[in-house]
């Protein structure tokens, strides 16, 4: 019923007039693909921390975030109170020490980011809108990488602020902090890609979680073991090459190659040389671009 | 953003959807076979059995799946080139479940509005409006996992309408709903056009329910167009009337007496079919309103009890037959059609559109009786003439 007809029929129906205003057209702007992509990115990033979802889905990401930041807080507190000359932990080292937490977070949130849409078949709703397949993959990938970056960079910020508070050398700390941020940025993009590809294979969340954990830990365990054996047998050249074959050691090697970080490989064997450098850079780039391509291919079949 | 009261139906292009020689072939099956059809503004029903090519057609119309050959235009835009522009102005409601259970309807529809390109404030306002229009109130703040099927269908409809499209494609919107929910959904679909001014293409495998809300019905089968015509053509041109009477002492065979009396009045009748119980049903062609009165008066004069007098609409099977050029009533007489027997079984569910479904052997298609129709000219007989009488 039109407002004016109500008013004409019954002057006392002012309240009804407010509640029944009929259908209104929308003549405002339609912001297009880039905006849609951004909206999906924001929603996915928030979702990775359980924001905008039920209270239960906030518990795990928030808990892991706290666990990730807690050691940084403790280190800072110790450094400040004990008047240390240097932070006991390097910026580039921090993520490695807490890699289990990062792995858990990825295992929990990557399926959340992609399996949900597959499982509840929300994907067709996206593709029936101006958003294209590439936009969807890009938004999801960027959101997952950003979520990981938030997780890994936050403790570094705490360390840095603590270091400044303890009046440690500004230039040195800033350089270390910058290198740390760069290393966790690469780590975030790499891990997000691997996690999403694995998670997008199955609409079942449980499988996704298990598969991501497996992909993150099994190659790492295998590579580490082989590295120790190689090192034991004096085959020192093989150690850095083996590092190419698991995500975690890949990041490790890249850090010591390009950022001069202390090597976490057995015996502190730091990879070096142009050939190894090229190999690490190529594998890193290859895995990241490959993940993106695989994700795009994955969604070719899913539209509607 | 400017919003104002609706200026009335505004879809001005003559053709909302236009396909020409549209084909879609997969390695093993041909989903669409040189389909040419025109859909104007209003509510259009797309009817066909499962696998008739309805969903494939929707995908092509949304610009998501390229046609093997032929062309299609939606709202004047070419599906092959302007898919994005089409999807901005078209809403789509899938047949299957598509709602994440741990999110509230409001949260979800706002998100979908933004993916359609609406700015944040507009997305929230339109979401509140749209959810109210589809009849979702306080429960819209609760997680959707706890919703009934009817509520979920409403949310699915809301997300298709939230960006104020000019056309919505609804894929089997009444699927899984109980009779009441089905009626409400059909009423809502009608309102989308009459109140909101949005054209609708709605698919179903039930012709009966689409007849109630559509201006125009398109029947596809095996990827080809069987028939496309205004809804009134399906029913009004030849209304078949089913009449059943009781026997009395004066007329031991009431049916025979009525046949004779109607014959004198110039109305030809024929038996309702060979199926059990159908022997007592008389079928006749009601050319106009007067036929109803004539039948009523004749029955009253003979002093018979009028068990039923109802419109019997055509079933999809008949549409198939008449498309092939054979007379419609031959299908109704065919002994191979037990469904023709008793659409208004006494003590049956009494739900229009729910009555007997059958598979016709020759065509292998799921057909459905269109169901007992609107009450019309049934009162006035000795027994009131309701279809549930006796």
Q: Main β-sheet of chain A, in a few words?
A: none
The sequence of SSEs of chain A as H and E is HHHHHHHHHHHHH
The CATH topology of the largest domain in chain B is given as Rossmann fold
How far the N terminus sits from the C terminus of chain B, by CA atoms, comes to: 61 Å
Give the helix level of chain A as a range of percent.
over 70%
N-to-C SSE string of chain B, H for helix and E for strand:
EEEHEEHEHHHEHEHEEHEHEEHEHHEE
Strand order of the largest sheet of chain B: 6-7-8-3-9-10
Protein name (chain A): ABC transporter permease
Organism (chain A): Streptomyces zingiberis
Pfam families (chain A): ABC2_membrane_2
Transmembrane segments (chain A): 59-82, 94-115, 136-161, 181-201, 208-231, 274-295
List keywords for this structure.
A: 304 residues; mainly alpha; 0% strand; disordered N terminus; B: 390 residues; alpha/beta; Rossmann fold; 2 domains; 12 helices; 16 strands; disordered C terminus
Textual characterization of the structure:
The complex is a heterodimer of chains A (304) and B (390). By secondary structure, chain A is mainly α. Helix content of chain A is 74%, strand content 0%. Mean pLDDT of chain B is 76; it is low at 1-12 and 323-390. With 390 residues, chain B is an alpha/beta fold. Chain B has twelve helices and 16 strands. In chain B, the strands form four sheets. Chain B has a six-stranded mixed beta sheet, sandwiched between helices. Chain B has a four-stranded antiparallel beta sheet with strand order 2-1-4-5, covered by helices on one side. In chain B, helix 3 packs across helix 4 (120-133), helix 4 (120-133) crosses helix 5 and helix 9 packs across helix 10. Chains A and B meet through helix 3 and helix 7 of A and helix 1, helix 2, strand 6, helix 3 and helix 4 of B.
